[in-house]
Amino acid sequence: MEKFAFMIHPLDVSDVARKYGIAKHLPRRMVARLVRLLPPVKASTITGIRSPYGEAEGWFVGCPLTTEQMLSLPVDYVLKKIIHTGKLAEKLGAKILGLGAMTSVVGDAGVTVAKNLNLAVTTGNSYTVATALEATRQAAALMNIDIQKARVAVIGATGSIGGVCARILARDANYLTLVARNVEKLELLAAKIRYETGLVSEITSDYKRAVKNADVIVTVTSSADSIIEPEDLKTGAVVCDVARPRDVSKRVAEMRDDVLVIEGGVVEVPGDVNFNLNFGYPPGIALACMAETMILALERRFENFTLGRELELDKVGEIERLAKKHGFKLAGLRSFEKLISKSKIEDIRKKAQQKKKLAAHA
Length: 362
Known about the structure:
With 362 residues, the protein is α/β, with parallel strands linked by helices. 40% of the residues lie in helices and 21% in strands.
């Protein structure tokens, strides 16, 4: 039985109440201060992962910092907290540790954490890319969007996930916009894409304008708050939201019945898996970053697989092949944690068509 661990943390102070009920009755600021005093915790035991080639079990280990704290506190302080949580995974017997949510973003994206632990570390970003792009292509096809002819935008393109998503999408798209705050980094990425594919990408730091013009959007920023609102999106657009916390506001689901928002990187885990923790998905469903850790454990690949800001295209393909070998697969198309049926997508497509016709005749 191969052993692994996956690191989680409260996205918001309200999540603290799931573990510590008393937090419901305290002011948010007080809870935020108290969280920093907590030790790392074993959040749950994960059992029942089985593939034709082996079995694995592991643990969710909790790093006691919220998303906002990970972004605002000194990097060295946050890294120490993450490493301390990693030491708990070592004590539990894990041979590989996956870094979840903001723990995979802070500092140098896992490199320093790996150097300070005696077990393998991965961010899970390679499999996140593979599943996000698979879901995006499926969703675009169901909305009758030809990616080759569509206007495609990658928001957060200079991040580790966004950069590789852009480089892979550039193989198919003829109109690609790269969006991030750092224009110099965008220029470097655009140059790399032009060298690899011949495609000349547009670059901008104005994500509102990019979103408004795009037919297909992959968004993967490290923002603590949602950045895409109902009024931002073009009729008929497909948005793959890979970010955690989400980049797309829940108001989009409530107010826009003519756009399709899907979640990137949600997969079915083989076996009779029990996470013993409610993180918002049905039984047996995990985020791809979690799944990458499980896949590597099943494969007995106890190595630092995905680390740092520069992801390797070859590793995206490799982890995709290993996932299929062990029986991991995309968990359909999901929108705001719920499975979205093909009939629902067809309704969205028809409403988008109707609104486009009305706009054309206005």
